[in-house]
Specification:
373 residues; abc type-2 transporter like fold; elongated; DUF3533 domain-containing protein
């Protein structure tokens, strides 16, 4: 978690910013906390900081609004009629980004620092003013002294992913669901074909064409089921047809990749070891979809190899409506997986047919097709 960076953007340059830095230093790089970095705000605006969080440069950001200290002083000296304590701290979150990890780590840590800063400001900078009675007896002054600042939460995207009821499922077992649907279909299909000796009955070209059709149509239907299952729990999160079809399309590609991988595994790996290889593939893909390799141990950079990582990072962009856009490498990687497996799948099918023909020939020569096995 310490590799995740949260920006501290002090546009005020006064005591409010100092209080925020003190709050951040107390927990900076502690276990379970991200790294808080004090960024240079020259040439920036709070909106640009929000955009940086949206684009993925920072995992979150806490902003001290311009002129916050000046407004506080004007309230104390009686020149301001009202004081708005909410116009001091705003922290931006992007909960779409690996929600299960984000909510428990980055979101909680950022909210803790942002809510601690007002208390530090009151203790360090307001208490001396109260002791010396250096303030006017006005409503604005009393309001400013009683509550000098409140931290306001804002979403870097257009809406909160927290409102999506299926977020925890997608962020945990979401990558396993498409793989399982392909696995059970392939096992059923191969079981039927083997029991009826279908692999030995037709020429390889017919089998390759048939398997190509199956590896396209079944993933299309199963990915539609996955999309319907996910969007059936949308809650108050606003979805649209474009978002649904984008989810369906990328899940279709991921499902086709999973189909071909499992088809090759069941063709080349002996049946006694198929379950071990399958479970290994599932576990690695599940792990790849749970966290961003950029903030985990360097060993987990291996996750870039697995298609589930690129599938899930594309989903982040879809649900955030353009946030953390990594499509320049996620889509080409998925396309590369798909093209490679479509090229290798016919060879696996020919190997499967060759084995089936040997078995069929053995039974035929021994006249033992109906004998106990």
């Amino acid at each position: 978690m310490a590799r995740a960076t949260v920006a501290l953007a002090d546009f005020d340059g006064g005591d409010f910013g100092e209080a925020l830095r003190i709050a951040a230093r107390a927990d900076n790089q502690s276990y379970g906390f991200p790294t808080f970095v004090d960024i240079d705000t020259s040439g920036l605006s709070p909106e640009q900081v929000r955009e940086d969080v949206f684009r993925g440069k920072y995992w979150a950001a806490i902003v001290v609004h311009p002129g916050a200290s000046a407004r506080f002083e004007k309230a104390l000296d009686g020149t301001a009629a009202v004081y708005n304590a909410t116009d001091v701290y705003t922290y931006y979150l992007l909960t779409t980004r690996y929600y299960s990890l984000y909510a428990s780590g980055i979101q909680a840590s950022t909210a803790t620092v942002a809510s601690t800063a007002p208390g530090i400001f009151s203790g360090r900078f307001v208490a001396p003013k109260l002791a010396s009675a250096r303030y006017h007896n006005t409503t604005a002054a009393v309001s400013a002294l009683a509550g000098p600042a409140y931290s306001i939460r804002a979403n870097a995207a257009s809406q909160e992913f927290d409102h999506f009821d299926g977020k925890s499922i997608i962020g945990t077992i979401g990558a396993v669901f498409p793989i399982l649907m392909q696995f059970f279909f392939i096992m059923a299909l191969n079981g039927i074909f083997n029991s009826k000796h279908v692999f030995a009955a037709y020429n390889p070209r017919a089998h390759i064409y048939a398997r190509f059709i199956c590896s396209t149509i079944w993933p299309l239907l199963s990915s539609l089921c996955a999309a319907g299952w996910a969007f059936g729990f949308e809650g108050s999160f606003r979805t649209n047809p474009k978002m649904f079809f984008a989810f369906w399309s990328i899940t279709w590609v991921f499902s086709m990749i999973s189909f071909d991988i499992l088809d090759i595994i069941t063709a080349l790996i002996p049946a006694a070891f198929t379950s071990f290889v399958f479970l290994t593939w599932v576990i690695f893909n599940l792990a790849a979809s749970l966290a961003d390799p950029a903030i985990t141990n360097h060993w987990f950079r291996i996750n870039y190899f697995f298609p589930s990582l690129h599938w899930f990072q594309t989903l982040i962009t879809i649900f955030s409506e353009g946030g953390v856009n990594r499509l320049h490498y996620t889509l080409p990687t998925l396309a590369g997986w798909l093209v490679l497996l479509k090229f290798l799948s016919p060879f696996a099918m020919m190997y499967r047919i060759k084995k089936a023909q040997v078995v069929f020939q053995y039974y035929n020569e021994k006249d033992a097709l109906d004998a106990p096995r």
